[in-house]
Amino acid sequence: MKIRVERDGLADAVAWVARSLPSRPPVPVLGGVLLDAGAEDGSGDALTVSGFDYEVSAQCGVPATISDGGKALVSGKLLADITKALPNHPVEINVDGARMTISCGSAKFSLPTMPVEDYPALPSMPQLAGELPGEVFGEAVAQVAVAAGKDDTLPMLTGVRLEIADGKLVLVATDRFRLAMREFEWTPDETLGDVAVLVPAKTLNDSAKTLGASGAKVELSLAANDGLLGLSGNGRRTTTRLLDADFPKYRQLLPSEHSAAAIISVDTLTQAIKRVSLVAERGTQVRLEFGAGLKESGDAGLKLSAGGDDEGSAEEELAVDYQGDPVTIAFNPTYLLEGLQAVRTPRAHLSFTTPSRPALLKPVNEDGEVAEGYVYLLMPVRLPG
To answer: What is the mean pLDDT of residues 245-268?
Structure first.
């Protein structure tokens, strides 16, 4: 194999594929990246970069000048590190026997290759379920994936539940302490019925973020019976195995009414939480006292406090638009900050009933109305006493 390819295109493609590879592959070839010169359409003008570990596959095409076609398999992590560090010059790749030579400007690398015949065949893309605007899909997945669990011993909490029904796409994730849900209308393929699957959150988030950044349409493909989901767009495609686990019955957790609510400035509250939580140990609660009289004006507002006599304490007052009886409620500051960031609007609506019941965080639109389509549920932390 002998090819010439632009450095940026190659580095982006290899980074996209390598990020899905396992950090500790069970066998060396599963940690490899497959370079296939001229394989994409048989015309000899494209380099296809692929990776697959039997769980997640990724593939990306790169324009290339191919003098001699062929395939080569090399360490994905090493190739990603090398291509990222190359100078901004065209890259020449030459494979001779069991060695690959990479030349770029004054830099030259020689890498051992692995047996191509030992590499598994990538899965085919499932049936097309529908198309989505890339930016909308990327944002929606990011808003939900933040609430997914990271404990692999509880696989049902490490995924994003994807529901397709009644012309809507619903994304949900929870780690038991919080829950995020985003739904929006779309037009799925006519042959696709109602379906609900559980997708690994990290894989879905990484793929949606990259595909959505291009601004192009994202094609969502699904084979629920075969346990496979695919995403493609802008010359890239990825597949992932679905999680075989039962997702919690989440809709019964969402409160249908509230007795108190506040409209808050997301940036103002975010900065205040960061300041008062400096005195508290990681994960220690931040207390929010709504309806407290502001010292300067006497108006109803919000008083934030954290810490105690042993580790130091801090408090700060903010003016908020609050409706309800005075109440003090406490949250994990990290979870609250991530929820504020996820609403993606300058103002947010925080509603609750009692200090021990779930609170809901929703975006507020430019007209000052609560926007539908996204909700972030957060369990309060028990107050002392």
So the answer is: 91
